[in-house]
Design a protein that fits this description.
It is found in: Cytoplasm. It holds the Pfam family Iso_dh. This protein is an alpha/beta fold and about 375 residues long. It contains 12 helices and 12 strands. Strand 6 and strand 7 form a beta hairpin. Bound molecules: 3-isopropylmalic acid and magnesium ion (MG). 3-isopropylmalic acid (IPM) binds next to helix 4. The site of 3-isopropylmalic acid (IPM) has 4 residues, from helix 4.
Length: about 375
């Protein structure tokens, strides 16, 4: 296999610790899995601000644009609460998403059998759960203009964000959802708030139209996003693929994460459109969880979402399906053996550290590969 370049952006908080575990997995695949990944390190978020006064430097931005895939940890923390809004840690992540045009965010929520007891929901509600949230990632209220706080001059201020979607944005994200549904259980649930929002009315229309234009073999269902949140907790197994906008997708994917036992379990892939010439997509892979500054440096962080995000890179950027399956199996086996970081441990149960989970997954890879 030709050499592939990965840009590693560990970020802040637990980001660097969990990225260390991914490095071990990358090294294992290079030594035993027939891959040839080269890696470069960059800074993003608060760590980039401390070094350059920016949430990502132009140099690292160019590296991200050129990389075969970006592997991203997490950003943010109380240390940077008071930095100017434009250079806050999250701005680095949002710039990467926007400039790389990563409009499709895939957030699978899978309940590993060994973790069915770790969820706050009853076992029969989440056992065997396998859903995929497809979140629109470069539009909506995250990026709409105007976005500002206006001084009204009468002692009052006005905070404004703009929710805005164009037809093409809704069409391309729904196509991604329909195509992924075909590789799974062939059902898409689209979520919006058409009862209150004009952007929701358009969202509903365009998803329906796109479905008519070549995806009628896929079952399509529409749900108001608030009802969708309720149904996710009531009976999540009714869903296969959920497609929704940027803000609803942010919230619903945190809800979905907890179904699986812990936010520390959920990986994600953010993909751009295939390049017209090469067919390759720009891509960034990141765990759904944040930088967890409260546990940074204590060895308590769960590296599984981060490692599984690298697994998604194997699958979606490099079409190394067998390698991706092997890594998923190694994660499942590690959990089967009862290894647990604090977030997924039974109450009063034994826990292991970030490094121990990473080492165990690498050992499982070795055992599985024979
Ligand atoms: C996520 C995060 C980000 C988001 C933050 C860190 C900007 O919550 O990826 O879900 O809101 O998209
Ligand atoms: Mg979020």
């Amino acid at each position: 296999m030709a050499s592939q370049n990965l840009l590693l952006l560990p970020g802040d908080g637990i980001g660097p610790e969990i990225m260390e575990e991914v490095k071990k997995v990358i090294a294992w695949f290079n030594a035993h899995g027939g891959t040839d990944f080269s890696t470069e390190d960059g800074l993003v978020g608060g760590s980039a601000y401390d070094a350059h006064g920016q949430s990502i430097s132009e140099d690292d931005m160019s590296k991200a644009m050129a990389a075969d895939a970006v592997i991203f940890g997490a950003v943010g923390g109380p240390k940077w609460d008071t930095v100017p809004y434009e250079v806050r840690p999250e701005a680095g992540l949002l710039r990467l998403r926007k400039d790389m045009e990563l409009f499709a965010n895939l957030r699978p929520a899978i309940c590993y059998p060994a973790l069915a007891d770790a969820s706050s929901l009853k076992k029969d509600v989440i056992e065997g759960l396998d859903i995929l949230i497809v979140r629109e990632l470069t539009g909506g209220v995250y990026f709409g203009e105007p976005k500002e706080i206006v001084d009204l001059g009468n002692g009052q201020k006005r905070g404004i964000d703009t929710q805005v979607y164009d037809t093409y944005e809704i069409e391309r994200i729904s196509k991604v959802a329909f195509e992924l549904a075909r590789t799974r259980n062939n059902k898409v649930t689209s979520m919006e708030k058409r009862n209150v929002m004009k952007s929701g009315v358009l969202w509903n229309e365009v998803v329906t139209q796109t479905h008519k234009n070549g995806y009628e073999d896929v079952t399509l269902e529409h749900m108001l996003a608030d009802a969708g949140g309720m149904q996710l907790v009531r009976w999540p197994k009714q869903f296969d693929v959920i497609v929704t906008d940027n803000l609803f997708g942010d919230m619903l994917s945190d809800v979905a994460a907890m179904l699986t036992g812990s936010l520390g379990m959920l990986p994600s892939a953010s993909l751009g459109a295939p390049d017209a010439k090469t067919g390759k997509r720009k891509a960034l892979y990141e765990p759904v969880h944040g930088s967890a500054p409260d546990i940074a440096g204590t060895g308590a962080a769960n590296p599984i979402a981060m490692i599984a995000s690298f697994g998604m890179a194997l699958r979606y950027s490099f079409e190394l399906v067998e390698a991706a399956d092997l890594l998923d199996k190694a994660i499942a086996n590690t959990l089967d053996k009862g290894l647990r970081t604090k977030d997924i441990a039974a109450q009063g149960g034994a826990t292991v550290t970030t490094v121990e989970i990473g080492d165990a997954i690498v050992a499982e890879l070795g055992a599985l590969a024979g």
